[in-house]
Amino acid sequence: MDPHRLKGKNILITGAARGMGAANAEHFAEQGANVCLGDLNLDEAQAVANRINAAGNGKAIAVKMDVTKRADNAAAVAATVEAFGEINVGLFNAGLNKPRFFMDIDEDNWDLIMNVNTKAMWLGMQETAKQMIAQGKRDYPYKLINVGSIASRKPLVDVTVYCTSKYGCLALTHCGAIGLAEHNITVNGYAPGVVVTPLWEQLDKDLVDIGFKEREGQAYDDIVRDALQIKRVSYPKDVQGTAAFLVSPDSDYMTGQMIHIDGGWCIQ
User: Rounded distance, CA 26 to CA 113, Å?
Assistant: First the structure.
């Protein structure tokens, strides 16, 4: 791994205390990037930052943030700039899911998922872009990267609100790419399928609770058998390469794209 590939990249990552957010933060830092880890769970985010700093490549800080609050997004951007001099990449990874069948969805379920998965992404993009615009144009593009999902391509009856939120993520990626192009800001994203993270582990349990699956682990087994061409679930390491590509200069001429990392699910 090239310890200098991402040198000079100062990156804010939301939802960075665990799962894909933490894995990407460590992967970017191994290649020389500086990372600000934003999360409600400051202790876990700080533990990730401590590991990064101990490794001695890129630098890391951790900030406590509620991604659904504009002020917290602005504060996380400001902390990134204070620590590293400027911000040139925002990775909006925070997300959650709480399955319900269509007729069981209520306002609380809708608001929870839409606020964290879609409203927070919009706020993060906007606050990060404000700072990038204020910094002035560079000879490279600034980058906003949105974490989408297979759920924006595959309607799933048990997670209707989650699907809706990820369709919103796709729209933010497309519209942001158009709206921010004049400022030399690109907007891209990646859409995982089944990634073994705390989010999916909780979803697996919740699907049993609502009666959609009979046992824990059945959701994984059914999807691998029926939907995936690569016959295994994925792990955060399977996403890291694509995420690093979107951060790196190799993707400088891309914008408005959502790359699927789904084991072939979209072929169905």
Answer: 27
Q: How far apart are CA 128 and CA 112, in angstroms?
A: 23
**pLDDT tens per residue across span 41-72:** 999 999 999 999 999 999 999 999 999 999 99
Residues noted as catalytic? 162
Alpha carbons 129 and 4: distance in angstroms, whole number: 25
Q: Using CA atoms, how far apart are residues 50 and 37, in angstroms rounded to an integer?
A: 11
Q: Which domains, and CATH codes, for the chain?
A: 10-193+236-261 (3.40.50.720)
pLDDT digits (tens, 9 = 90+) for 74-119: 999 999 999 999 999 999 999 999 999 999 999 999 999 999 999 9
Sign of CA dihedral 132, 134, 136, 137: positive
Give the span between the Cα atoms of 26 and 51, in whole angstroms. Answer: 8
